[in-house]
Amino acid sequence: MRKLTYYIGSSIDGFIAGPEGQFDFFAFEGDIAAAILAEYPETMPVQARELLGVAGVANKKFDTVLMGRGTYEPGLAIGVTSPYSHLKQYVFSRTLTQLDPQVEIVSGDPVEFVRRLKRQEGMDIWLCGGGTLAGQLMGEIDELVIKRYPMVIGSGIPLFRASFDLTKFSPTDHRVFNTGATITTYVNH
Length: 189
Description:
By secondary structure, the chain is α/β, with parallel strands linked by helices. The protein is built from five helices and ten strands; from the N terminus they run ββααβαββαβαββββ.
């Protein structure tokens, strides 16, 4: 069965973006950038793939990406309607209409939708964001891969926006990079 992996960047204080959705303060540089490009090349959006040297690189872990509306909208603001055309793309929204034939808008229950996806053949599924969708899917997340950047931002969009619900994960890998950033992998019990 396919796994759902929440692969995301975060500040030390647990925010994946600022109050207005900004995330450009998470530097993509040095040894952490090299590790991401080597291990997760499919997580680079289509407009950056050639520039980063991964345009022809095969997907290594994921063949599907899930996004909440807030995660999808920054691309729309610059005219990108299909940010990950090398993946099967789903955007969860009750208000968006179909903007691109390569991106499926899902207005129904995300939990049931993900359960169906997991039963299908394929590579793992990347939960790209955001915090509200991650909160809705917490019980379905099999793996967390958190890129934690050495900064505190004070407020913004949390890793998970949900009601209190204790869900235990166990760390399976932790790496520290010269930039001060870390990547920690956890699995759901």
